[in-house]
Write the C-alpha cells for this entry.
Amino acid sequence: MKNLEYQQRAVTELIDKTIRLLNAGGQRNKLVFEATTGAGKTVMACQMLAGLMDELHDRGDSRYQEVSFIWFAPRKLHIQSYEKLKDTFEETRTLRPVMFDELDQNEGIRPGEILFINWESVNKESNIMVREGDCSLSLYEITDKTKDEFGLPIIAIIDEEHMFWSKTADKSAAVLDRINPMVEIRISATPKTANPKEKVTVYRQDVIAAEMIKKEVVLNPEIELNFSDELELNANLIKAALDKRNQIAAAYKAVGSNVNPLLLIQLPNDTKETMTTEDTAIAEQVKQYLDVMCGITTDNHRLAIWLAGTKENLTDLEKQDNMTEVLLFKEAIALGWDCPRAAVLLIFRKLQSDQFTIQTVGRIMRMPEQKHYQKDILNSGYVFTDIAKDKIQIITADADYILNNTITAYRRENLKNVCLPASYSERPNVERNYLGPDFRKVLFEETRRFWDFIEGNLLFSLEELAKLDNADDESSPLPDSDDLQINENRKKVANSIRLDVKNINIEIPQDVHFQNEEQVLEVGTIKYARKATEIDRVFMAYIATKGHQFESKGRADKIASYLLEILADFFGIFDTDAKKVVLYHLNRPKFDRIIDSALNRYARLREKAKRISAAKRVFKKYDWEVPEERTYDGETNHVIETQNHALLPFIQLNQASNPEKNFVAYLEQNNQYIDWWYKNGDKGKQHYAIEYSAEGDNSKSLFYVDFVIRMKNGHIYLFDTKSVGSDSLAHDKHNALLKYIKENSTDEMPLYGGVILQQGKNWLFSPLPIENTTDTLNWNCFYPQNA
C-alpha cells in the first residue's frame, strides 16, 4: 500500500475520537467512519486499532490502558477481514485476531484481542454462540466476564454498517444491547446511523487525488443501437459492453500493463440471491451470445459464473492477469469482493427501476495498480444498462437493505404470559381479496363506458385493418363503413387511440458522466425500437403495476388475458400487435384509466360481497397468549427503543396515532409498576380480539384491543386508546369489553380496562358502561402505582 496522507489523517482522527469516547464513560458511544469504496477502509481500521493500543499505553490522560475488541461483519466478510488482519499482525503481534473457537474462554477477550464474528451467527437466540451450554460459555457470558471480572472496556467494530439496517436489524440491535460495548465504531461507504457522537469522513475527491479510485463513471458511453438487425436491446448492450472491455484491454497493453480488464454482467433483481425465471432467461441469453458471437465460454476460461447454483472459474479471478474476461453474477458477489481489474459493468435492471446503488457502481471504481494512467479511458469506470428513464437516481444503499423488508420481534425470556379468551373467524372464499373471473365483465363494461361503445359491434373489418397496417407512421383518416353505428364508434376513438402502432420505442441514457455519490441526474437519451421478442416481457411488466389492492396470485395473468380479449373483440387486433397498441405512449394513459377504473369498481363490488358475508360470519373461540415472535412489514413500521414491551424490539406503525404513541411513553415512564405491556395488532387470527355489536345492529364484528398490560401485582389491564369523538363505535367497543372483563376475570387473573383517553397528563377510563367519549365526568384515572 502507498503511504497516503488522507489515510494517515483518518487514522489519527479515529484514534483521537475513540479515546475521547472511552474517556467520556457510558456505554454504546457511537463513532461513524465513512469512506468511499476503494479508499482502503480495512487498511485504515487496521492501522487505527494498532495505533490505538500504542496511544492508550503512551497517553497519560487515557482513562483505560487496555481494551478488547469485537469485529462484527455480515455474511462471510468477517473471515476476509480476519485473514487480512492476521497477515498484517503476524510479525508485530501488536494485536491478535481470533475466531470464537480460538478464544481462551476463561480469560474472556484479552487486551488487544480482536474477536471476529458474523451477524448471522449471533442474531438468533438459538445460535450456539449465544446459547448457554454445559461445556462452553456463550458470547454474552464471555463479554460479561471481560467487562466485569477483568475490567476491560469493549470496543465493537461494525463493518459494512449499512447492512446493520437490513432485515435482521432488530436482532442485531438486541445483540449490541446485550453486549453493551463502551464504544461502537461503525464503518461503511454509506452509513445509516443517525446522530453519532463522533464521525470521521474520508472524502471521495481525496481518494481520487491519491489515484486510488477512478475519476468518474460513464453510463452507456458512445452507445450506438443497431436498427438494421434483429438484435434485442439486451444483445446490443452485451455487444457494447464487451467492445468497451476490449478497448480498455488494448489501452492497458499500450501503456505496458499486464492488467486484463474484467466485464461484470449483473442479472436483474440483484437483492434476491435465488434465480427468477427472468434471471434464468437473461443468463441463457448472455451465455449464448458470448459463445456464438464471441467464442467466450466457461470451457475456455474466458467466462466465469458466480450464481447461487453455479460457480465456475472463480479461482484467482481477482489476479491482474487472470485470463477470464467476463463474469456473470448476482447479488452474492456484492459484499466484500475486491477485484480492482473490474472495469466495465453491465446491469440488467428491473423494468420499473430507476435506481443505481453506490455499492453496485463501486465495484468498478478501484485502480488496479493504484495510479492513474496517461490514457484517459483507463481512469473511468463504465456502466451499460437497459434502464429507460430520463432521470436516474444514484442512491447510497441497495433498496432491499432499507425497504420491502420485514422486522421480527421476539418474546422476552421468562415472560409471565397470560391466557385470554379470544375470537377469530375463518374468511369465507368470498372474503378473500383476490381477482376473480367475474372481473372480465367489469373490465369489458368499463371499456364500453370509456368510449361509449355499443356491445356487439366490431370497429374494423380485416380488410380495413390491412389498410391501416399499410398506412404511414402518422395517423390517417379511417375509411367509411356501410354500418352507421361503426362509423359513429370510429369517430369516438379517432382522436383518442392509435391502432396502427408499428414500433414500441425505449429511450435509454447515453454518455452520462458522474461520480458514484448520491444524486439525481437528468440524462440525454437514445431511442431504440423494441423487437417482437421483447414486447411480451414489457407488456407483462406494465400489467404487473396494476391491481395491487388485490392478492397477487394470478392477478397479472387475468388482467392481461381480459385486456387482450378486449383488443380482439373491439378492434380485431391480436397478440403482439395488441400489446403494442396498449404500450404505445399516447395510448397508455387511456388504458391506465380503463384498467384502474375497472379495478376500483370491482373492489367496491367485492367489498359489498364481503359485508354480506360478514353478516353471516361465525366466530370461533381460542385462548390467546403473547406470541413467541411477530413479524412486521419494514416499510410501514419502525423500531422504537423501549424496555418493557413483551416482544423485543418494540415495533411501531409509522402512522401510529398520537394517543397510541403518548400511551406507550406513559407506560415506559411507569416501568417500576408494570411487569410488561403488549401492543396488539389490528387484524388477523393471530391477534387478540373480542366480539362486539354496534348499537341497533344484530351482526357481530371483531374488536382488537390496543394494549394488554400485566402489572407486577398480576393484575391485567385491557385498554383501547382513543381521542374524544375519534371513533363513533367507541362506546359499543367499551361496553363489550366491560362485559368481557366481567365474564372472564378471576381471582388468579383479575381483569380491568376499557376505552382510555388522555386528558392533560392523566389517562381516563370508565368502570361503567358509556354512551359516548365526550362525557368523562365519572371516569377513573389509570395510575400504574395504584393499579
Observations:
- Residues 5-209 form a domain with the Rossmann fold fold (CATH 3.40.50.300).
